[in-house]
Amino acid sequence: MTDCLFCRIVAGEIPATLVAETDRVIAFRDITPKAPVHVLVVPKTHVANVTEAAAQIPDVLAEMVAVAQQVADAECGGEFRLVFNSGEAAGQSVFHAHAHVMGGKHLAWEDA
Ligand code: 5GP
Ligand code: ZN
Fold it and tell me: Which catalytic residues are annotated (predicted)?
């Protein structure tokens, strides 16, 4: 069994509220939302961060962006902030690449 939280969510071992899924990507609600819409888009393959995703699974990374757009189209008028924290100092706490899709209100840049 893996000790990666998001691998375990992908495997269905830990429950999450799914909002979208493709063969290679899942999207589920953040457990501690920081905006009215706060969804995590995650590759089913384990890579540690967005840079590894770009290098190792670039087509999946592009699919993550497309899924982010679909979530935003469904939930917040198609407009959204997409955040990849990379490294502890940047706020990354789960070391399985994920995009935060945030929206549903006017986001000031200072809210970043
Ligand atoms: P990071 O800080 O690594 O950029 O983002 C990790 C995100 O995962 C955080 O926003 C946190 O709220 C969310 N998170 C942590 N544990 C869980 C969980 O068990 N389920 C869900 N749905 N989200 C989680
Ligand atoms: Zn993982």
Answer: 98
Interface confidence, given as ipTM, is 0.99
Choose, from 38, 46, 96, 98, the residue flagged as catalytic: 98
User: Model's pTM, two decimal places?
Assistant: 0.98
The two tokens of residue 84 are 């990849």
100 is catalytic: no
With 0-12 / 13-18 / 19 or more C-beta atoms within 10 angstroms meaning exposed / middle / buried, residue 30 is: middle
Ligand 2 centre from 5 Cα, in Å? Answer: 6
81, β-bridge pairs: 102
Show the domains of the chain with their CATH numbers: 5-111 (3.30.428.10)
CA distance 73 to 21: 15
Q: Is 32 in the pocket of ligand 1 (CB under 6 A)?
A: yes
Residue 77 — φ and ψ, nearest 5°? 65, 20
